[in-house]
UniProtKB/TrEMBL annotation:
<protein>
    <recommendedName>
        <fullName>Protein kinase domain-containing protein</fullName>
    </recommendedName>
</protein>
């Protein structure tokens, strides 16, 4: 839930930047959570699998996310600028999973097309488009943190014209749970 909440926050941040939402990222329709009570869950004896938020013995792992703590970030920087939005500044950082009343989270995005693959990687026009959307993302002050083929999908049919490149990008970047944001402001 914590990682998904962080990803939702990044989409929300990018949605406020006109040149990103609907041009280099899919539209985000929302982040939703609900709790499940014990009686709504299938009894563990009848479940052929463990719930995704629990370990093999059914207890919560001590750590339920794999994001760098701010202390680890400080190792790379002399000091963390106040504009850098880090994990410990999130309200979700203090959230504690409750095995008796699990929380389920869903992030709903606009449906994109197939993922980027090795065949796409051979096309110089595709590579140019990818370079342009990475540049646009950087201009928004976002470092993706997990950029790879599976985090690129074909743009939805509703993708808008990019104001920087005066074209409709054929690709969108997704999966922002490891992203870093530096709020550069209007300047």
């Amino acid at each position: 839930c914590r990682n998904l909440a962080r990803e939702a926050w990044i989409y929300n941040y990018l949605d406020r930047i006109p040149q990103s939402s609907g041009t280099i990222i899919p539209q985000c329709y929302g982040f939703f959570t609900t709790t499940l009570t014990e009686r709504k869950l299938i009894p563990s004896a009848k479940r052929p699998y463990n719930l995704p938020w629990s370990s093999v013995d059914g207890e919560h792992a001590k750590r339920d996310d794999d994001l760098c703590d701010d202390v680890e970030v400080e190792e790379f920087l002399d000091e963390i600028p106040s504009e850098l939005i880090t994990k410990e500044r999130s309200a979700w950082n203090s959230w504690v999973p409750d095995s008796k009343n699990p929380l389920v989270a869903v992030l709903i995005l606009e449906k994109g097309g197939p993922m980027y693959n090795e065949i796409d990687d051979q096309d110089p026009l595709v590579k140019k488009d990818i370079k342009q959307i990475i540049r646009d993302l950087s201009l928004c002050g976002v470092a993706h943190g997990d950029f790879r083929m599976s985090n690129l999908v074909r743009s939805p049919t509703t993708t808008e014209v990019c104001p920087h490149h005066k074209c409709v990008h054929k690709w969108n970047i997704i999966d922002f749970n490891r992203a870093w944001v530096l709020d550069l402001g209007v300047e």
